[in-house]
Amino acid sequence: MHPCPGDLLVIDGRASVQFAGDRALTFRVVSVCDRPTYAGWVWLTGYVINRRGQATAKREVYVQLAGLTRANDTGRQRIPGQPQKMPVGSRSTTSSRTVTLAEGGARS
Length: 108
Hints:
Layout: E1 8-11, E2 25-32, E3 41-49, E4 55-64, E5 69-70
Antiparallel strand pairs: 1-2, 1-5, 2-3, 3-4
Region (Disordered): 72-108
């Protein structure tokens, strides 16, 4: 697979040994470097995506093309740590909210 900007990928040990096990990333591609590398490898620039779908860090990673997996391929591949989507029409019994702290302020 050849990644493109905007792709959401799972980068794990199949892509590079440094991302094996609990070091796997969900990664939103921003750019694909065109500089020459070893055959089958590529430099990607993008953002690490956390379990809530938020970008947490900008990274440049060197990975094997053959080991990349799209996180959103036909809905079968899950983002590591991300809850599975509920079927249409079902309801969640839990709720969540985000608490924002004003600079120097207190929680409200």
